[in-house]
Amino acid sequence: MALPAPPPGFNLDAEKAAAEALARGGVDLSGINSRDPEPEFDGEDPDPKFDGKAADGDDEAIEDKTDNGPIGEI
Amino acid sequence: MNRRLDARGLDSYKVKVDGVLSLDDLASVRKTAWALGALPSTYEAITKKREVPEGVQRMIRNPGRRTDKQLARAERRMSQMRADRARRAKKRKAAKGGRLIVVNNCMKAASNYRKNPRAYHYLAGGIPNLMVFTPSPRTHRSDCSQFASGIQDASGLRDLGPNGPLYVNTVIMSRHLDLTTDPKPGDFGMYGTRNNPHHVEVRCEVPGHFFIGHGSPPIDSQTPGLPDYYLANPLGG
After folding, report:
1. What phi, psi does B229 have (nearest 5°)?
2. Interchain CB distance below 8 Å, B83 and A42
3. Which chain A residue's Cα is nearest to B112?
4. Chain-chain contact of A36 with B58 (C-beta, under 8 angstroms)
């Protein structure tokens, strides 16, 4: 089935220019991305209704057993 | 790092393992460092200086070796993040009908993408199409407004422009759709000016997936990380 002809004047110049500028800056445009610019809380007390532990015991995970030293304050 | 993100409900920040450290990857490292309890000066420097300190690399590999202070900071941050997400999820329940279909279709498209990211591409131009749930051939148009229009079409809602769903771009969207200052799930976040926008994302309000779109948002919006303005979804059918 043939596609309908584009309407006169239809172009993607704005998107192309923005995409090229972003690509030059190293931004990856290739995918369908989801993101959430949610607030990054810091300093607030924990909410008593919500615990702060990671799932699956990940807070205790040690994947590189050769790295024995403590992690300093960073 | 992807395991750290998964365990903390930050799966939308997971990275492609391709040997290349992109700006998106650095943003993910920053978020991981925040979630693991690094100091603000440490995680903010990751994207500003484009460097990942050795200490951050070590805490990502071995979160079990963090200091008590880091662990306590991480738990406070996670607790507050979960509380905030619960508040937002309550608000999002107002989404229904066409808006809910749009959000669900965006989530489906993003989920499909994450299963096979290398199969996708970016092309402003090329053969017009409405493919959003599967990767398209490299000759096919695959960009932000093509994604928005494809989702709208798949949701059975009104076109985003007067020329049918195949010929929609951000400028046409901006001329055709109404501005809204009270955006809801399913509305469109626009980047750039009203007359010359250059990027669009769909506002979904799903925790961790507040915006879904094709490509990354420009970093030059008036409020970094947030659209410059919103267009209302015309809904209907």
Report:
1. -160, 170
2. no
3. A32
4. no
Give the C-alpha separation, B11 to B26, whole Å. 15
Q: Any residues with CB less than 8 A from the CB of B122 and at least 6 apart, and which?
A: A19, A29, A30, B142, B143, B214, B215
Find chain A residues with C-beta within 8 A of B59's C-beta: 71, 74
Q: Is B237 inside a domain boundary? A: no
**pLDDT band for position B224 (cuts 50, 70, 90):** low
Structural domain span for residue B39: 2-92
Number of domain units in chain B: 2
Alpha-carbon separation of residue B37 from A31, B29, B31, B45, B115 (angstroms): 29, 12, 10, 14, 29
Q: Is pLDDT of A18 > 90?
A: no
Q: Is A8 an 8 Å CB contact of chain B?
A: no
Tokens standing for residue B160: 């985003």
Token pair for residue A54? 């990671």
Q: Is the pLDDT of residue A1 over 60?
A: no
CA distance A60 to chain B (A): 4
Angle between helices B23-35 and B54-61 in degrees, nearest 10: 70
| Most A-contacting residue of B76, B90, B212 (CB-CB within 10 A), to test interface | B76
Among B19-28, B32-41, B211-220, the range scoring the smallest mean pLDDT is B211-220
What b/e readout covers B83-92, taking b as 16+ CB neighbours within 10 angstroms?
A: bbbeeeeeeb
Q: Per the domain annotation, does B59 fall within a domain? A: yes
Report phi then psi at B156, rounded to 5. 70, 30
pLDDT in tens, B122-136: 998 889 999 999 999
Report the alpha-carbon distance of residue B131 to residue B143 in Å, rounded: 11
Q: B156 and B186: one domain? A: yes
Q: Is residue B20 part of a domain?
A: yes
Interface predicted TM-score (ipTM): 0.75
